[in-house]
Amino acid sequence: MTRYLRYLVPLAIFFILVAFLYRGLSLDPKRVPSPLVGKPMPEFTLPRLKDPAATLSDSDLRGKVSVLNIWATWCVSCRAEHSVLLQLARESTVDIYGLNYKDERTPALQWLQQLGDPYVANAFDADGRTGIDWGVYGAPETFIMDKQGIVRHKHIGPLSVDDLNNTILPLIAELQATP
Amino acid sequence: MIKRFFSLLLLCLLLVAGTAQAGVTLEEFKFNSKAEEQHFKDLIEELRCLVCQNQSLADSDAELAHDLRAEVYGMVQAGNSDEQIVEFLVARYGDFVLYNPPVKPSTYLLWFGPFVLLVIAALMLLRSVRRQQNTATTEISTEERAQLDTLLGSTTSSKGDKQ
């Protein structure tokens, strides 16, 4: 038995290593899990993008299932994601809010005019202070909140049509169905 | 050879000096004392930038790192303790921002794994040393002794023959 152990132990260690390395292949170190998931959404009050005199705050997002999308005109992958957000707005009754992150007003308004506007309203976070409270570290990012205002999901990076169909839409439907 | 070694050493030193200078400046922040500045530097050295993940907040030139440095500076000036500042960042970005991760069940493997491996290695070493000692002190039978003597004897004699 001990004679075989001499070969079996290194073989076992080898397979354990292979398992770890194989798992590592499908992990993206850029995707850091958010500690906000499962917690109430951070409070904020910011001027709106379209109407600087009016404010948008977390209370506008409460009492219903809501989506908060962090975007900016300087963010290249936000442009790629935009059509998916338009699709989300078409296919779901959910209210999509935007956090225009460290951006300028004029190009941001142009962007919405040219590419279409999936948002119910946009908060204008010029200095990125609200972004810090939401743990934003790279646009685009998308949060989904339930009716109690608890963060249920965070998507880092651009949403794809697959993400929409496999994760986002089913989750929204599920959250909307629960009281 | 020695010349080559020294030129290589010089090159390494230059490279190190280069990276040290490439760090970000803290000129925008005002400090009342050297100690205060050092404290701030030590704090941001321990915090990780999420954008360029292998750099600390002290090293990174990313926009977010810049904002977070300003945030940490503001909190230090407002009299927050290091723990409060770290807690503030962990609440938003998770344990990932810490270069010094906390000891908790999900990090037990990280913290204690190396010691477990060390103990296993020590046990294996002990076992193999014991085994060697055992073979060294093994008694041989008279028959084996006689055989050994013949062999040794024949070697000496054959050597003698050649000489």
Give your account of this protein's structure.
- The complex is a heterodimer of chains A (179) and B (163).
- Chain A has a single domain (33-177), classed as Glutaredoxin (3-Layer(aba) Sandwich), CATH 3.40.30.10.
- In chain A, 43% of the residues lie in helices and 20% in strands.
- Chain A is built from six helices and seven strands; from the N terminus they run H-E-E-H-E-H-E-H-E-H-E-E-H.
- Chain A has helices at residues 2-25, 58-61, 76-91, 105-115, 129-133, 161-177, and strands at 45-47, 55-57, 66-71, 95-101, 121-125, 141-145, 151-156.
- Chain A has a five-stranded mixed beta sheet with strand order 5-4-3-6-7.
- The mean pLDDT of chain A is 93.
- The mean pLDDT of chain B is 81.
- Chain B is elongated and about 90 Å long.
- Chain B has 163 residues and is mostly helical.
- The chains are: A alpha/beta (179), B mainly alpha (163).
- The A-B interface holds A 29-30, 32-36, 102, 127-128, 132-135, 137-138 and B 50-51, 53, 63-64, 67-68, 71, 90-96.
